[in-house]
Amino acid sequence: MTKPTKVTLTFDNGIEPIELPILSGNLGSDVIDIRTLGKHGIFTYDPGFLSTASCNSDITFIDGEKGLLYYRGYPIEQLAENCDFLEVAYLLINGELPNELEKKQFSSTIHQHTMLHDQLTNVFRGFRRDAHPMAVMVGVVGSMSAFYHDSVDVLDPILREITSNRLLAKVPTVAAWSYKYNIGQPFIYPQNHLNYAENFMHMMFATPCEKYEPNPVLAKAFERILILHADHEQNASTSTVRLAGSSGANPFACIAAGIASLWGPAHGGANEATLKMLEEIGDVSRISEFIKRAKDKNDSFRLMGFGHRVYRSMDPRAAIMQRTCYEVLNELGLHNDPLFKLALELEKIALEDEYFVSRRLYPNVDFYSGIVMRAMGIPNSMFTAIFALARTAGWIAQWNEMITNPEAKIGRPRQLYTGNTRRDFIPVDKR
Ligand code: ACO
Hints:
By secondary structure, the protein is mainly α. It has 17 helices and six strands.
């Protein structure tokens, strides 16, 4: 059967039918182009964008049915196996993998921007000592708009590149310092001879009294976590960055908006919740009790790290993360880690259970990432912050694409008004 190229909208009250074109991408679902509907005084209703493509994009492709994830056409498995994070960031932002010279130059540029303006330390010190690292990140990244205002003409490609480089280079420093501030340790400055992942681990774990030698197996695993989280097409935080940026707003402020959106437990906070759940289950003998609770409609408990809005089969990132989990735990001599064993058993039982099978609920990336990070010594409160530093690469790529897209317009959704109809003012003594 040939694909349809247009669709006709008919009305039951005699209004003329409206013909709408159907657009095809290179992969994935076709979309009905409804841009002309507004001219007819008709709008569509789609809370949560369940059936709406908000933009066209060349960056990331997901096939939720088949469990595929591509960055610029490359399967995530190949990138996670063969690339370092900066190569993937370069790919997302520029559209192609860098050649050797480009890779060297890009890496050197990013390393030259890792330090923060020294006055930013005063911004950190303005926060309460016990502030959550994500609260500090939202504030500090937003405040960078006041420190780097020389480079934010969003229509100038050179200045956009400088801003992108600054963000990619400095967000890890902000994330690591948010943690140091929270635990009352001095800020550790970036070390530019270390790679991106090692440098972050160094800023998190070194102290002025003790050198930190990054373990290469752990650094590699950390790099993979960053790659797996670098982009995921038009999710809530990415759409937030695009919407904020669509008005021409300051890019540091737009990324801060993305961080705020990511912070929510339904988005970036799920890895922390999965770990808490595994700790609560505590023992393999209690799995059936929790599976029963997850299936009970009168119980709000859900199996965290299971299910996904887009993936209706295995999240491809979950399989890579499971392998990474083995590698990290073996390296640390934790192959008998009880939480990992519990997670494996829980996955096995859930994957055979009719409730999960019929609803096509599979483990997502967050099911194993918490166990990996915990084994590496990263505290729960930093899980979402690390997600944010990885996703900064995707946010920058998507923001750049939005700014340069000739079809882009200021984001201005319509609404279905359900409030009062017109009524007249009543003076206060008569209300
Ligand atoms: N445990 C138990 N039941 C579940 C779960 C779960 N984790 N996820 C979905 N279901 C059930 C729902 O109760 C519903 O059942 P019903 O049809 O009998 O009413 C059915 O599966 C469909 O669920 P929806 O909520 O409609 O699916 P949706 O696509 O809206 O939700 C979501 C996806 C939010 C991720 C959900 O699966 C969930 O809450 N998972 C746990 C949290 C989690 O791991 N989030 C991380 C997502 S990945 C990321 O952000 C990086």
